[in-house]
Amino acid sequence: MALTVGVVGPEDLVQRVTAVGAPSGTALLPLAYRHETEAVELVEQAHSDVDAFLFTGVVPYTIATEAGVIDRPAMYVSYDGATLLRALVELLRLGHNVTQFSIDTLRRSEVIETLIEAKLPTEHIHVLPYRPGLTSDDIVEFHRTAREKHDTKVAISCLGSAFHLIENEMPSVRLAPSRYSIRSTLQALVLTTTGQHVGDAQVALGVIDLPEPDDALAADLITLGGSLAALPDGRHLVVTTRGLLEQATEQFSRMPLLDHLAARHTTAYVGFGVGRTAAEAEALARRAVSRAASIGSVAGVVSMSDDVEIVIEPSGEQPTTARGTESLPLLARRVGLNTQTLARMRELTATLPDGLTTQDVADHLAVQLRTARRVLKRLERAGLAAPTGTQQHGRTGRPPTVYLIRL
């Protein structure tokens, strides 16, 4: 299977990656930017053209990840100790003092370990590790401060935009990833992407429970590209694959099938199971359709083998006024979150009544950002959360979405 990998980064580094070449059966698509803040737009524009993304460094990768625009395998090329050693050798060749320098983006432990192995002193080395939200202006200010307060002799930067701002002010060098790092990262990314494509071929079985026969059902299921059969209990069995199911449900975010069924039936329950075997997928589908019946008059649930359950309701369904008075256990069962998580979300909503962001949820629940996004997405699907705008605070990349929560 031929794969296309989008290479995201400044033009010179993108050219460096493409010059190394890709593994057999893989094509590289250059996605060069002038400034790292353009990474989000490039990723969004290339979604339909690539199977995976390779970023030339941690900065554009983090910006795109924080913006939530990466929905397929993605990795970044690391700047290892060998990269730093080559830069130090070049600085020595040019007559610079390599015992007093400032360096950004790399971890301090990695820098110190590299210098110790090279038998170089470390007491006059200043390191600014990269963290989300760190801008090129922040990095430039770090190098300027290190020179003014600590008399550093050289600035070493991993970020092109920062390097171009300081190269005329002080002796500077820009790190570039080694051919070895590029090649090994590409190989790992291709293996990961190939593995996910195999996952797309996982069997997905659906069980549809309707109150009466429906001659239009087969036409509704065309987008799933599978087959439809009648079950002995009067329900319907749908056979498809995970990849087709993801496409038809927009990555499990909505199910047009439910809208069609809601227009023709007073009740309709759809459950899909995604498993490693047909037997496992069928068991998950039956569990999912039973769960759907406990949510409302029309609902869908996708169950997976790793105990993940995604609740989907008709896109046209509006939350009822009674939902605000539902008990937490009832809400938890309908939304697909545990009671404790909903209780913590109520606490957060009380402190931020005008809206909250994914970062607010992650901090309050002490979870990763991707987990916080899933929590908000489930609340949104259940009609308990709605995006109301974005938060503007001079952030790098796309500003975070603000959600209004009704719990």
Automatic annotation (TrEMBL):
Domain of life the protein comes from:
Bacteria
> What is the protein name stated in its UniProt record?
Transcriptional regulator
